[in-house]
Amino acid sequence: MARDIQETSVSPHGGSRSTIVQAIEVLEGQSKKGLVARILPFLGPAFVASVAYMDPGNFATNISGGAQYGYMLLWVILASNLMAMLIQALSAKLGIATGLNLAEQCREHFPKWFVGVMWILMEVVAMATDLAEFLGAALGFYLLFNIPLLAAGIATAIITFVILGLERYGFRPLEAVITAFVGVIALCYVAEIFIVKPDWGQIAYHAVVPQFAGAESVLLASGILGATVMPHVIFLHSSLTQGRIVTRDPAQLRRLYRFELVDVVVAMGSAGFINMAMLIMAAATFFAKGLTEVGTLEEAHRTLEPLLGGASSWIFAISLLASGLSSSTVGTMAGQVIMQGFLRRHIAPWIRRLVTMLPSLAVIAIGLDPTRTLVISQVVLSFGLPFAVIPLVYFTSQKEIMGGLVNRRITTILASLVAALIVALNLFLLYQTLFAGGN
Predict the structure, then answer these.
(1) 360 FRET partner, CA 20 to 30 A, in 176, 210, 215, 398?
(2) pLDDT value of position 115
């Protein structure tokens, strides 16, 4: 049985044969290893997806929140992370249960004209996402090495190509590199928190007690919540699990999904703690010293050195670079999944990657204002979000599509409420940006 499953376990991203064999042994109850060793073969997809939750855009939002309101909005990050766990768990489940990713499901079940509209919109979303990530990585190179943004953008593109080239060796090397980037970001913020010595009592209080301080704090909280779930990573996560470990045995499918839930909880939980650490660092450094107007990544980097010493600004730049490189890789992967899933055509990987990357390099080359460009990219993401979240909740609630892994009624209700809240907040932010003078 394990051999049959192993031989059919061919993922779009390749597969690590030893990992698949270990996973099937666990699913069949044949593994004699300890709990942690049994979990390890299933960890990876959610860590790749989690990168989208600690991209350069999150850096800017969390630092702004901490600088303006101290620890007060920590509970928003915690709540948004719980919502993200639910959405990403549904995305992982869709790939496991059906063997198709979200783009392919849309292609199979929606009218052809609507699929065409979705494909165009999601391609624009993928490009907008890559734009934000490329700008972040380029800024990281600039802050560390003081090289021009265009040269930094080209360096980002080259490194992204190299990382994505690991796909040919199976899913494990790529997952390992992305997870290493996540580890670098985490270590950087552990070091930052050690340096700033925050107020742990205030952290514990504001992490669980909802609180606002005027209309501006509500708007910023909406920004954190509304930008929590990125449409491109919903498509990507379903692709990462669709062929990674393949089994059609109902009992093994349920067991596989439980292990993937562990992956989601650990990875998304780590992303949540990193986001909280960003806000804590800003609160303990900037808010505590009355520097409430720190709103850009460049200002944060420049201000950290005189306040905390040169090491802190270097640590910040390294974490930003790791975030930008990893999230640009993930954004490009999402662009590949979207293009191939909607079109049902095999396109050379280097062409798919160039299509996603070139607009980002063009924007950097033209010399557009980075902050304004990031705002516009977030507007594009807001447009695309309903076209990812709503189909996801719909498909995972259909028994004829999901089989034994169909959502329970309470899960569908909860996911629908979360989807409605996320979409409403994104529409609100869209209105603020376009019509109410939001910047």
Answers:
(1) 176
(2) 93
